[in-house]
Every structure is written in structure tokens, then in C-alpha cells.
Amino acid sequence: MLIVLIYILVFRLTHTLTTTHTQSKPTMLSALRLTSKRSFSVAAVNPYKVAVLGAAGGIGQPLSLLLKLNHKVTDLRLYDIKNAKGVATDLSHIPTNSTVKGYTPDQPDALRDALKDTDVVLIPAGVPRKPGMTRDDLFNINAGIVSGLAQNIGEFAPQAAICVISNPVNSTVPIVAQELKKLGCYNPKKLFGVTTLDSIRASRFISEIKETDPTKEAVNVIGGHSGITIIPILSQQKEMPKTITKEQKDALIHRIQFGGDEVVKAKDGAGSATLSMAFAGAKFADAVMSGLNNEKDVIVSSFVDSPIFKDQGIDFFASKITLGPQGVQKIHEYGQLSPEENEMLEKCKETLKKNIEKGVNFVK
Ligand SMILES: NC(=O)c1ccc[n+]([C@@H]2O[C@H](COP(=O)([O-])OP(=O)(O)OC[C@H]3O[C@@H](n4cnc5c(N)ncnc54)[C@H](O)[C@@H]3O)[C@@H](O)[C@H]2O)c1
Ligand SMILES: *[C@@H]1O[C@H](CO)[C@@H](O)[C@H](O)[C@H]1NC(C)=O
Ligand SMILES: *[C@@H]1O[C@H](CO)[C@@H](O)[C@H](O)[C@H]1NC(C)=O
């Protein structure tokens, strides 16, 4: 009897899952997510090992805190050239199940021990932008840091999903790919440029105009991860207020593209976005783990190795992706664009192509 009941339940669940559209029925989907999670709890629940490289920084610390609070993480490794043990000890007093350990280069094999057997690696290591600096100015310093870390990931954690936060993401992601290719362990399905901050800014800023709940707003943001390469596709928004003017729309696009500058300016020499970025990074890592756990319809935006413009020499592109047990499961088409958005896309592609080449040439 019980078995029959379970069968009926499972059938109805899978049936609903395949017929439910993610975006249109968020409440239903989250309810389903909970149920599907429970059905996995027979085995160990989401036992993911996660490493943060650059964990003692402005982003690294709050990101590590949010990961310590995530029940999908059981083993958290914090690596930094300084203070990683301090941050790890501090976080280790928080009463969640996961263990947290810090690693610094003064220990022999610190990176190996931090990376060994990890499922997810997040990289916020680097230097942040100062006022007047573009993300491009950061290139040479951060490219060197990321490249060194990528070699270690290739050696000690070739199976891990790698989430790159260090800027310029549009160049650091190709750098990681190139290093892994050299080591013969590049898996394009497991390399991600974290562009979630662009998406969450878009949700927040558009909700201020529409006067809606920002947690329910989603904007399809495609392209790259800096300035004009960030393309929020506002034409795909349903229910934009009829009263919104072209000026307001342009201002919104500009604010999404240059939101980082707002923070750099306000912090006035004390760094760039760290707290909102930590939230974005933790949200992205959570989605990656949900995918690994085979949850359904895990859709996020990310800058990935993408077929969309590969024939035009653009190997990486940000668009919506579905995450699964092997990493990227599906890369979504970006859909219909307005003439203005098509123009933005052309400019984006020109710049992106140069940035990617720059990353590739750095490693060559
Ligand atoms: N993807 C995004 O949307 C986004 C948003 C904001 C900032 N960022 C980028 O994230 C990076 C970090 O920013 P932050 O504000 O946290 O800077 P931060 O200077 O506060 O922290 C960086 C940390 O990296 C560490 N580090 C440096 N070299 C290292 C190495 N070789 N190995 C391990 N750790 C190393 C430093 O010790 C420091 O703790 C910057 O590149 C910044 O531009 C990205
Ligand atoms: C934490 O561990 C305990 C003991 O193993 C377990 O019963 C509990 O479900 C775990 N909690 C979470 C949220 O994983
Ligand atoms: C990518 O990175 C470079 C370096 O920051 C930057 O100049 C550029 O505007 C960014 N966007 C694109 C598409 O390159």
C-alpha cells in the first residue's frame, strides 16, 4: 500500500516537474525543490566540499560566512596568502554541521590540501578596483594570481567546478581555461565566470522602477561582465510600466552596467563591491551544488565556454544556463532582442573578442 502511494507521488511529482515552467511558477517550484531534496536524504545529504581561494579578502570573508551557513557544504576550506586560519577559526565557532579549515602558504602543500577532492572552488583572490581604475587596469596583477591558482586546481582538483570571481572575469576565465588545457584537464562544463552580481543588481534596480518585490524580478543579462558588454535584455521584461521613458530605460541599463562604479566611488578608496558580491557568489555556488545534486531546473546566468558566438571567435559568452550533475547541462539561447539591444550586442562582441584574446595570449 505504502509503495503504491510512493509510486503515485513520484509519478505526480515528475509529471508536474516536466510540465511546470520555472519562471512562471516560482512558489510551486520551490515547494517541489524541497520535496526532491528530501528524497535524496536517504544517502548523505549534499555532502559538498568547497574551497575558497582568497578567503580572507573583502569578498572572501563574507562569502565564506555565507558558505558556512549553507547546509549543502560539509567541508569548507579557506585558502589565502594571509589570515586564512584566522577567518577559518572565527567561522568554525558557528554551530552549523560543516567543518572549516584555513590554509596559508607557510604550511607545506597548503594549496594541495585545500583543493584535494573538492567539488566546488570559488576564486575571489586578487586586488580590487580603486577609484579611477577600470577592470582592465587590474588585468596584469589578477591574471598572474588566477593563472597560478588555476595550475594548482588543474593538478589537485581537476574534477571541481571552478567559479571565477576575480576580475576582469571576461579575461580571467579564458586564462583558467588555457591553463587547464595546458594540463590536459580542461572541462568546459565546469568553468564559470560569476556574473551573478550583474543579475542581482538588475533585479534590484528594475524593482525600484517597477515598484515590485526585487526577489521576484529576473532580468536576462547576457554578454560579458564589464561596462558595455553587460546587456540586460529589458525588451523581454513583461509588465514594464507604460510610463517609463527612453531616458529612464537608458539610465537603468547604464546603472546595471556600471553598478560597480557606484560602489567604488562610495567606498572612496576602501575597495569595490564585496558584500553584494559575496551574496552573489554564495548564490551561484548554491546553484552549482543544486545542479550537482541533480535538482531540476537550476537556471542561472554565467560567463561560460559557449557555442553561441564561437564561429565569430568569441569562445566565452554569458547567458542563461541550466546546471546539472556534470556542471553546465544546457546553454540557453538569449532570445529576441530589440534593434537597440542588437546594436549593444554588436559592440559587446567587438570588445569581448579582444578581452578573450588578451587572456589567451597571457598564458601562451
Ligand atoms: N565578479 C564580480 O562581479 C566581482 C565583483 C567585485 C569584485 N570582484 C573582484 O574580486 C577580487 C577580490 O576583491 P576583494 O574586494 O575581495 O579584494 P581584497 O583585496 O579585499 O581581497 C583579495 C584577497 O585575495 C588574496 N590573495 C591575493 N593573492 C592571492 C593568491 N595568490 N592566492 C590566494 N589569495 C590571494 C589577498 O590576500 C586578499 O585577502 C578582485 O579581483 C575584484 O575585482 C569581482
Ligand atoms: C547535522 O548533523 C546531524 C548529525 O549527523 C544530523 O542529524 C543533522 O541532520 C545535520 N543537519 C543538517 C542541516 O545537515
Ligand atoms: C572585459 O575586460 C576588460 C578589462 O577590464 C574591459 O576593458 C572590458 O570593458 C571588459 N569587457 C569586455 C567585454 O571586455
From TrEMBL:
Q: Which GO terms describe its biological process?
A: malate metabolic process; tricarboxylic acid cycle
Catalytic site residues?
A: H225
InterPro entries xref list:
L-lactate/malate_DH, Lactate/malate_DH_C, Lactate/malate_DH_N, Lactate_DH/Glyco_Ohase_4_C, Malate_DH_AS, Malate_DH_type1, NAD(P)-bd_dom_sf
GO MF, any single term: mRNA binding
Pfam families from the xrefs? Ldh_1_C, Ldh_1_N
- Give the reaction(s) catalysed: (S)-malate + NAD(+) = oxaloacetate + NADH + H(+)
Origin species, per record, is Naumovozyma castellii
NCBIfam families given in the database record: MDH_euk_gproteo
GO cellular component: a single term: mitochondrial matrix
Q: Where does NAD(+) bind?
A: G54, A55, A56, G57, G58, I59, G60, D80, N142, I165, S166, N167, M277
Q: What residues bind substrate, as annotated?
A: R129, R135, N167, R201
Which CDD domains is this protein grouped with? MDH_glyoxysomal_mitochondrial (cd01337)
- Residues in Lactate/malate dehydrogenase N-terminal domain copies: 49-193
The record's section on SUPFAM superfamilies has: LDH C-terminal domain-like, NAD(P)-binding Rossmann-fold domains
Q: What quaternary structure, including any partners, is listed in this protein's UniProt entry?
A: Homodimer.
EC numbers for this chain: 1.1.1.37
Q: Which family does it belong to?
A: Belongs to the LDH/MDH superfamily. MDH type 1 family.
Keyword Oxidoreductase recorded: yes
Q: Give the top-rank taxon of the lineage listed in the UniProt record for this protein.
A: Eukaryota
Domain Lactate/malate dehydrogenase C-terminal: where? 195-363
Name of the featured protein = Malate dehydrogenase
